[in-house]
Design brief:
Elements (H helix, E strand, L loop, with lengths): L1 H10 L3 H20 L48 H8 L22 H5 L41 E3 L7 H5 L7 E3 L2 E3 L11 H11 L11 E5 L5 H6 L5 E6 L7 H7 L4 E3 L14 E7 L11 H9 E10 L1 H4 L3 H16 L3 E7 L5 E6 L5 H5 L58 H22 L12 E4 L6 H5 L6 E7 L6 H6 L4 E4 L12 E7 L2 H4 L5 H11 E10 L2 H13 L3 E5 L3 E5 L10
Parallel strand pairs: 4-5, 4-7, 5-6, 7-8, 11-12, 11-14, 12-13, 14-15
Antiparallel strand pairs: 1-3, 2-3, 8-10, 9-10, 15-17, 16-17
Helix pairs in contact: 3-18
């Protein structure tokens, strides 16, 4: 054919044939192009910056640093690799199985026993805080014997497979308080608790009767449950359109957070020790503690100062513990100190009462005006000095001062968000710049379109099997907002090296936390059904190995769970062979989305 074509050009014969061939080629290209799904224009809303979102808003239209291309044009087509080439690249990573009796439930930054043993003090729960190993996890965690696909939501709220979380200690330890009961192949959660003598549903109703302005699911939307146990309080509040960030440390209450996540209830591992919680200022509408075993009066009141930092002005602290309603000397001493500290913090008691089982409850409210701070005779604790609060809670020590009330660009105190569900799509009070507000609405519109046109139907995801979702680079939580009508919940993660948008996420009535993806996340293995990443890896790979991040994703994700990545061509081509090495199925969609599905495969050789 090459010789014939050359003769045509030399002798200028049959020009009409050349024209006809060119026409056929052009039509063929058009037909091939039209068989490809329409692409969504690619742009990255949250570019790397050291500035706070309140100071300089991100632009939704910033181009990707690499590779550079017109973000309004379709991205380059992904080169399809042969099966042989994929297998060749996949075997370059020789995965081994982690060994040891604790490998099944290993959490690298909480199970670093070498660092924990070297601690000079455990007085302030230092041994329950993060101590990440220098080297990232290089092996894959084994599955529990008999592990199977989790019980689907909403049935999972009340029962889970025992073999998936085979920890019987709490069954015996809390049998009189009805936290959890073993029944055949299942662990059953009757809705009991230390303070829930008549059941958690009765307790929730009692709280609203004690303070009607709570208005579950309207005025109070985002709650923090401290020392949550198996998170039944947060699980039952979901029926009230309230989303609760339940947290507890990894302690002698064996696997309580693992139980919560297996049930499909939002939860994380954390502790109030020497460091700030990884949440922004003025985040929660209510903070709840029911016999949570935190010594609020300790260390001059620093634990309470931390609650004050993350509680929204006008928000409530609901405390149900023995110092509230018992008259013995020890409890009354604690109560006296609490009265002194909360008064100095300008908190006021707005309600108290006892339920039919004799359980007492007191509800405090954080002030909505700075006048009380200014009128205190003794300025103890002092107000913290204003400073850039960008990701300030990541590995930061607890303050000995009170965080000032948040103000807007005009110096006025920020208002309470709109009632739920209006607050989801209304202007967040923490967005101070008009340009940032415009970008917020553009981002919401973009994700609504993407989820409707691509994620819902176009990525071959079985959404009926999805309950626990994590957005690894959440931005304004547009992805989570677009999923709001599905029976899922989303942990919105704001990485420490991108724009700090976490306050906006809480303003919207959603939950999330800060994290550094060059470290391990504070969760048990196999606790999420779907991990989502939008333009995250191009930043992460500048500081750490992309293979290490994938190993952490494999640890977090349950078998048959999904990883969905929206990123540049370069990143997608880097991820594909790594995921193949894990025996995941991988598919590419619209030349810009990668969907990986984790299998039940585990290596046979140990590290």
């Amino acid at each position: 054919m090459g010789i014939i074509g050359e003769e045509f050009f030399k002798e200028r014969k049959y020009p009409f044939i050349l024209t006809l061939l060119g026409l056929f080629f052009f039509v063929g290209v058009l037909i091939f192009t039209n068989t490809t799904n329409t692409t969504i224009s690619t742009f990255n809303p949250f570019v790397l910056s050291s500035n706070n979102v309140q100071n300089q808003p991100p632009s939704l239209l910033d181009p990707l640093p690499a590779p550079q291309h017109d973000h309004h044009a379709p991205p380059p087509a992904i080169t399809n690799q042969s099966q042989q080439q994929q297998e060749k690249e996949a075997v370059l990573i020789d995965w081994k199985l982690c060994k040891g009796p604790l490998a099944v439930d290993y959490i690298p930054c909480l199970d670093n026993w070498e660092a924990i043993k070297a601690l000079k003090s455990r007085k302030h729960m230092e041994h329950r805080e993060r101590h990440c190993p220098q080297n990232s996890l290089k092996c894959l965690l084994p599955l529990p014997k008999g592990y199977r696909f989790p019980v689907p939501w909403p049935k999972s709220r009340d029962m889970i497979w025992y073999d998936n979380v085979p920890h019987p200690k709490l069954v015996e330890y809390k049998k009189d308080q009805h936290w959890v009961v073993k029944s055949g192949e299942y662990l059953v959660f009757p809705g009991g608790g230390t303070q829930f003598k008549d059941g958690v549903d009765h307790y929730i109703q009692f709280m609203e009767e004690t303070l009607p302005k709570i208005q579950w699911g309207k005025h109070i939307r985002v709650v923090l449950d401290v020392g949550c146990g198996v998170a039944s309080f947060g699980g039952y509040l979901l029926d009230k359109n309230v989303i609760t960030m339940s947290f507890a440390p990894k302690d002698e209450h064996e696997a309580q957070i693992q139980f919560a996540l297996e049930r499909g209830i939002p939860a994380t591992l954390s502790v109030i020790g020497t460091q700030k919680l990884t949440f922004p200022d003025s985040a929660f509408d209510m903070i709840h503690c029911a016999r949570c075993r935190v010594h609020w009066e300790a260390d001059g009141g620093k634990p309470l100062y931390e609650l004050n930092r993350i509680l929204r002005p006008g928000g409530f602290f609901a405390w149900s513990a023995t110092p509230v309603y018992r008259d013995n000397e020890k409890d009354q001493q604690i109560w006296s100190v609490m009265v002194e500290i909360t008064k100095a913090m300008c908190w006021s008691v707005v309600a108290n009462g006892r339920d039919s089982a004799g359980i007492g409850l007191v509800i405090y409210q954080k002030p909505t005006s700075s006048s009380c701070y200014e009128n205190r005779k003794e300025k103890i604790p002092p107000l913290c000095e204003n400073k850039d609060s960008k990701n300030s809670s990541w590995y930061a020590k607890l303050d000995s001062c009170l965080t000032p009330l948040s103000v807007d660009g005009m110096g006025e105190l920020q208002s309470w968000p709109m009632p739920w569900p209006q607050r989801l799509n209304s202007k967040p009070p923490s967005l101070l710049d008009s340009d940032a507000t415009d970008e917020f609405y553009k981002d919401s519109k973009l994700w609504s379109q993407l989820v409707s046109d691509v994620y819902a139907e176009g990525l071959s995801i079985k959404w009926s099997s999805i309950r626990n979702v994590m957005d690894m680079n959440a931005g304004y939580a547009g992805f989570a907002s677009a999923l709001i009508d599905l029976p899922v919940w989303v942990m919105n993660v704001v990485p420490i090296d991108v724009w700090d948008t976490l306050s906006v996420i809480y303003d919207r009535g959603l939950i999330g936390m800060y994290h550094d993806w060059c470290e391990s996340f504070n969760t048990y293995p196999r606790t999420y059904d779907l991990l989502h990443s939008s333009f995250l890896f191009q930043y992460v790979e500048k500081r750490c190995d992309i293979v290490d991040v994938v190993a952490e994703i494999d640890r977090i994700l349950r078998p048959d769970g999904y990883l969905v990545v929206r990123d540049s061509l370069e990143i997608l081509n880097k991820l594909t062979p790594v995921l193949h090495s894990l025996h995941w199925s991988v598919s590419l969609h619209q030349n810009q989305f990668l969907v990986g599905k984790k299998s039940f495969w585990r290596p046979t050789a140990f590290e």
